[in-house]
Design a protein that fits this description.
It is built from nine helices and 15 strands. The chain is α/β, with parallel strands linked by helices. The chain folds into two domains: about 150 residues, Medium-chain alcohol dehydrogenases, catalytic domain (Quinone Oxidoreductase, Chain A, domain 1), CATH 3.90.180; about 140 residues, Rossmann fold (3-Layer(aba) Sandwich), CATH 3.40.50.720. Helix 5 packs parallel to helix 6. The structure holds NADP nicotinamide-adenine-dinucleotide phosphate.
Length: about 325
Amino acid sequence: MKTIHISSPGKEYRLLLGEEPCPVPGRGEVLIRVAAAGLNNADLLQAQGAYPPPPGASQILGLEVSGTIAALGDGVNGLAVGARICALLSGGGYAEYALADAGSVLPVPSDVDLIHAAALPEAAFTAWTNIIDTARLKAGETLLVHGGTSGIGSLAIQMFAARGHRAFTTAGSDEKCAAAEALGAARAINYRREDFVAMAKAETGGKGVDVILDMVGGDYIQRNIEAAAPWGRIVNIAYQQGFRAEVNFAPVLSKRLTLAATTLRARTASEKQAIRDALRQEVWPLLGNRIHPVVARVFPLDHAQKAHETMAKTGHIGKILLSLT
Ligand SMILES: NC(=O)c1ccc[n+]([C@@H]2O[C@H](COP(=O)([O-])OP(=O)(O)OC[C@H]3O[C@@H](n4cnc5c(N)ncnc54)[C@H](OP(=O)(O)O)[C@@H]3O)[C@@H](O)[C@H]2O)c1
């Protein structure tokens, strides 16, 4: 099968088209004929040699795909060969065929484009488990999602706006703010010109926001604490501006805040299945009507290098995909 090889892993890595034997599904796994693979920042880090795959995972890049089921391993029930699906992977997505644990597979409704569905798994799993499982967002509570036009932000805003929450967001240009509001954000501000702490207070009558999903870190750590409501929960999925900050914890104490951070990739198959089950019940019924994959660009597989360079420039709105068809 066609796949992408990392030549000279490191800062100057090159992604080249190659050939590898097609994988064979083991017990509890499905083999997917890949229609498209979603790009993630983790792929760029892995290609640079900075983020090795967890033990047992494919060495091939790619943490999410859409496609059709080509074969079922032993013990897989409730899925059929030929079904349109998308799946979270522990690796192996940049290839004609990929293996997924059956518990990480979700159906693709007939009114959702199969290629565009590759934009869904990583963003949906990450947004759901951090905002619901970790930050325990409750009905009627407010949400601040930083990076509102990122792959994760663009889906998170739709998911939680559709569930009735007022979702506020930040983005790096006025065009991106308009896009985030079109996705359902109650208010989007250009973080290069406006202060999100002031926005969070103004939009909540001075109370602050109940839950914050942050991918920025650095000086946002203190500012998130200032923007949070009493009993607020702040969860980080990345620290793009740095893991280190000098923090005044007094408002954490006085406002009874919770600070958390999580990663998805290294979680067990059963932990991922629990997230998949919740998504299927709570979010997937809204797919194709209230929630849509947001796709910035689709590159053919053999343009993976160009796709990575586009991702690294961070001008995109939504997800960047590699098409196999
Ligand atoms: N922990 C986990 O389980 C997990 C899972 C998946 C992804 N992640 C991480 O989550 C992050 C987002 O992933 P993605 O795929 O959605 O990436 P992405 O599409 O490349 O988005 C990165 C976003 O960060 C935003 N950003 C950068 N500086 C900002 C600032 N000062 N204020 C507000 N926003 C800022 C960018 O906004 P502008 O372009 O508008 O500047 C951009 O939208 C990545 O760092 C990724 O590694 C973590």
